[in-house]
Amino acid sequence: MNRNDLQKRVRVCAGELVAEKGYVSPLDLLVKMERLTPRQVEDWRLRRIPYLERVATGNLSKMNTILLALRKFARSTGLKPSPTAYMSWGKGPKQRLRFSKYGNPRVEEQYSTHYVTKSFGKSRKIIDESDAHSSGAHSETTKNKDKYEDEE
Description:
This protein is mainly alpha-helical. It is built from seven helices and three strands. The protein has a three-stranded antiparallel β-sheet with strand order 1-3-2. Helix 1 (3-21) packs across helix 4 (60-76). The longest helix has 19 residues, at 3-21.
């Protein structure tokens, strides 16, 4: 897969994740793109894998392309960056998890930044309204619910 195809795939998968969840994280994106499996992510969170790049499919150049394309997608669609701490699961003290072999702060930040809609409730409402309009039904209850959401 060349760089342009990879960037296009990032845009498609990231758009699907935002529509589904109201945010996109590099971790979710890599799973959706089948660069990681849910099992690998779980093993990493349980500290069975020292750093995530060790098990990711593709070389570091491709991973960097994916992360940069995600950041570009987020900027172009008005998503807000939200730094997130990934802590280990399981028994024992919780430890910050590493994404990269050497723990470079810039690389770690790229992997751990989620991109969220300005207001998840509003993005969900827009999706719900477009579904209602396409089916020709928009109930009074939905209109009232939307009115109250806007007032918050």
